[in-house]
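Final paragraph of the annual report: two paired records, presented back to back.
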Amino acid sequence: MNVLVLSLALFIVSLLIQLIIWKIRIPKRQTKALLSLFILVLIGGLFVINAISDHLDVLTVKSFFEYFHICLFFISLTLAYMITYSAIEVDSPSLVMINAIAKAGPKGLGEKIFTKMMTDEILIKPRLADLLNDKMAYYDGDRYRLTLKGILFARLFIFYRKLLNAPKGG
């Protein structure tokens, strides 16, 4: 029970600190800032837990394995949150399309109007800007090229799709 309570407490502290920072100024590279913040809270939190565990009878951590479980659960929560946050950070193309159709109401949205609305400005360019901003790609003359970080990220997804035997495409 201590592992659960302490992990959740660290996660909630991380969320609260994020909210405060984001109210002051949203970082340019939000995913990197989130990861850095949550890791710092975990490390700092483990030191605090270690310091107060000797003086309290409740919420004490007594073994390496309990610290390991706190880290594992906290990191799992953090990664799940980061995936969810990326969907909040920028509208996905599917969400943009669904919103456009929903705004049309019960009468629906004509194909010609839909096609005119769904331009590269809305669907493609924001994603390219994100890749450039996150340093996963760079613009070289008239071409976009992947950085090492982008290549590794792409290979991770390719591997996962092969593992699931998923077909090519989106």
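The closing record of the year follows.
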Amino acid sequence: MRVIRAGVMISIIGMLLTVASGPASAGPIIDPNTLTPPPPPGSSCRADGAWAVCHTVFVEDLVNEPIFDLPCGTVYQTSHDPRTGLRWYFDDLLVRRQVFSSVSGTWSLSPDGAGPTIAFVGYSNWIDIYTVPGDVESAIETLQGDQLTVFLPGRSLHIAGIDIDEEHRGVLRDLSDPEAATAVCGALAG
């Protein structure tokens, strides 16, 4: 095992930061409202010839939001889901989008979050390719990652892998399985 002294490590980190913060090759800033469809508010967009690249940030926070129904009742979700993304436009029309999501939260059968809860996490990303530039309805989506892990006493439900144009490949143990729904109801009922 190699040991690197703290001073050497600080020097290496400093060099990496200097290289990473060197002159940017990005083009001029452009008005996101000139793009079709426009990216979310707060996006940062730069021109690169006929291309525009936008960096996006979106946070979805839910507090005791009704999400779905199970045989035992309505499930309410409290969660934090920060998302970062990139959008590529050609001649001002959206042609590709990639989003990274890292959600965590809890489910409850109570509209005010009282009573038993179960925790869940998800780490996924998706890419949309627009077969008709600028037309969001023409997207072909590829979703991948650890989409959802629900933590139950003594077990978990898990959805992971890749979904290409709505076809799943990988681990799929979700709430459409009656045994899984029963396990979630049992954990939420206390």
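The chain is about 15% helix and 55% strand. This concludes the annual technical report; the extension proposal builds directly on these records.
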